[in-house]
Design brief:
Strand content: 35-45%
Main location: other
Shape: globular
CATH topology: Immunoglobulin-like
Number of domains: 1
Order of helices and strands: HEEEEEEEE
Largest sheet: 4 strands, antiparallel
Distance between the termini: 44 Å
CATH class: Mainly Beta
GO molecular function, one term: copper ion binding
CATH architecture: Sandwich
Subcellular location: Cell envelope
Strand order of the largest sheet: 1-3-6-5
GO biological process, one term: copper ion transport
Helix content: 10-25%
Pfam families: CopC
Bound molecules: copper (II) ion
Length: 124
């Protein structure tokens, strides 16, 4: 796609998201994490190769992202990806050494509502 086509696509998506936001019932479709791998706050003996978060509602494939940082704030994850069924957000990880890691997620649900959060896990 050309830059112009990408921009046009993004603008049309934003218009759809804005329209959805006006529907009162849609408020129930906010997307929040159901579970994750690794689990929130866990300490692992073996470094995980990826982080996955499962959501309770469909998330947007373009506007949903996950980033993992180490205790020094360096990004240790590669580009995140939303699954075909749109409830799974995952990112492969670079090889991790022992330490604490922070997972930052930000998603847009089908009703256009944005939710975000962060949690940590450790590798010993
Ligand atoms: Cu909502």
């Amino acid at each position: 796609m050309t830059k112009k086509a990408i921009l046009k696509n993004m603008l049309s998506r934003l218009t759809i998201l804005a329209a959805f936001t006006l529907v009162p019932n849609a408020a129930y479709a906010h997307a929040f994490p159901d579970k994750s791998s690794p689990t929130v706050g866990s300490t692992l003996a073996t470094a995980p190769k990826k982080v996955t978060i499962w959501y309770d509602a469909s998330i947007d494939r373009l506007f949903s992202k996950l980033t993992v940082k180490n205790a020094q704030g360096a990004v240790v994850s590669l580009t995140s990806h939303v699954s075909r069924n749109r409830i799974e957000l995952s990112a492969p990880l670079k090889p991790l050494v022992a330490g604490k890691y922070f997972v930052y997620w930000s998603v847009v649900a089908s009703d256009g509502h944005h939710t975000h959060g962060h949690w940590s896990f450790a590798v010993k």
